Amino acid sequence: MTSSELPTIGIAVIGFGWMGQAHSRSYARIPSLFPDRNAEPALIICCDNVEARGVEAVRSFGFRESTTDPAVAINHPDVDAVIVCAPNMLHEELSVMAAKAGKAVFCEKPVGGTPDQTARAEQAARAAGVITGVGYNYRWAPLVQYAKSLIDAGVLGDITNYRGRFFSMYGSDPMGLLSWRFEHDGAGYGVSSDILSHSIDLAMMLNGPIESVVGLQDTVIKERPLPKPGEGTHYDRGEPGDPTGPVTNEDYAGCFARFANGSVGTFEASRAIVGPQSQMAFEIYGTKGSLMWNLETMNEMRIFLTEAHDPGDGSAVIHDGYTTVYAGDRYPFHGRFVPGDANAIGYEDLKVIECAQFLEAVASGEQHDPGFAEAIDYVSVQAALVRSWESGGWEPVTSVRID
Ligand SMILES: NC(=O)c1ccc[n+]([C@@H]2O[C@H](COP(=O)([O-])OP(=O)(O)OC[C@H]3O[C@@H](n4cnc5c(N)ncnc54)[C@H](O)[C@@H]3O)[C@@H](O)[C@H]2O)c1
Is the pLDDT of residue 1 over 60? Predict the structure, then answer.
């Protein structure tokens, strides 16, 4: 048995909560799922300000070292790529530090809590010429990739309408803790930074740029129990009588949008809605057909076509009424996890695909998509939306990029 002759890409993960752990597990899974990879990932160092989390990263996830100091992780000589999974308001500082150290940087969405922070992080990465990546992981769902190929091939005709939503129950319980997500100091904006960003990013991937928006926002639950430092996540609850603090960013954000291709769209995101549990969903309608996809049933897509279409196997398919298509190994990436049709893959598998694509970009030196430039595309829409909350009218989308 010989060891791999591929170059090694050393990884530092900063912030070892839900996402830090998901990225770490995903890098560890790449070798067995991507035998055609162009580099070997090596988990070098994990950084969390809660020391026990870094210790656990070494004990159970295979990191060589841990630290509570981000500068130590970023400047580690064996680290080539820094994965930023800390709360949003730390993204700018950590991304800029990584870029200035000449390291590739993958930042969890939305790269900064505010559009200004995203713009400064992108400027620093561009100036340093480093590879960047962003955690818009729903792009990587095999049926979403298939949807994109159908849309790009004109199978749906000219696109007329788009509906995007991300309805989640994670903040619907008034006893849910006041984690950093509910505070402007920790997260920046609320759902518009957190989950609307996924919905609009996906829309722009599928249907191109947005030119103008008009929207509104609301905070439904105004006080929440205070968390204990270093314990729990935004899924945990307090008890009646616990001390509380104010929620300082929005629970709901919605808008109408006009796309550059002339189509119209609507978007809604809520973290305080009851019923839909993680409904990251889109519908796209064209003159010859339409598609519907929902993360809650991510291995299914509904398709309506008015004209015969060859899905690639020589058969002509026409859908007279909606047809449900199940994910399977004939769609991008799916067969790396399970063979055949309708054997489901899951949320964290999308993270493995994402990490594998980023690893390949770092090793090849070719910019990853989505990177910080695509993060700018989203926060430029967000900045227009925030202006619309204040003006009450339509606002043009202009790039927040700093030249
Ligand atoms: N792509 C997705 O689907 C997705 C899903 C969830 C979260 N996210 C993003 O990932 C990021 C992290 O979210 P999460 O849910 O993992 O949060 P989390 O609260 O579970 O984890 C955050 C971690 O960062 C650590 N931390 C806080 N301050 C730090 C500091 N100064 N230095 C080092 N570590 C520090 C915390 O101790 C915690 O372990 C956010 O930006 C969020 O928007 C993305």
Answer: no
Residues 155 and 126 in one domain: no
- Residue 146 CA to residue 152 CA, distance in Å, equals 10
Does residue 2 register a pLDDT over 50? no
Give the pLDDT band (50/70/90) at residue 231.
low
**Same domain as 174, residue 90:** no
Q: Is pTM, for the whole model, over 0.85?
A: yes
- The rounded mean pLDDT for the chain is 95
* Residue 124, φ and ψ in degrees, nearest 5: -65, -40
Q: Which amino acid is at 261?
A: N
Residues 378 and 201: beta-carbon distance below 8 Å: yes
296, 278 Cβ separation under 8 angstroms: yes
Give 227's DSSP letter: P
CA-CA distance, 25 to 350, in Å (whole number)? 12
Q: Are residues 67 and 188 in the same domain?
A: no
Cβ of 15 closer than 6 Å to ligand 1, yes or no, is: yes
Distance between Cα 177 and ligand 1 center (Å) = 15
Q: Which atom of ligand 1 is nearest to the CA of 16?
A: 39
Q: Are residues 112 and 157 in the same domain?
A: no
Minimal CA–CA distance to 209: which of 244, 261, 249? 261
Q: Closest ligand 1 atom, CA of 86?
A: 24
Structural domain boundaries enclosing 268: 142-297+299-345
H helical segments located in 153-268:
184-187, 191-194, 196-207
**Distance, CA 327 to ligand 1 centroid (Å)?**
30
Residue type, 322: Y
- Token pair, residue 101, equals 């150290």
| Contact between 106 and 133 (Cβ < 8 Å) | yes
DSSP label of 185: H
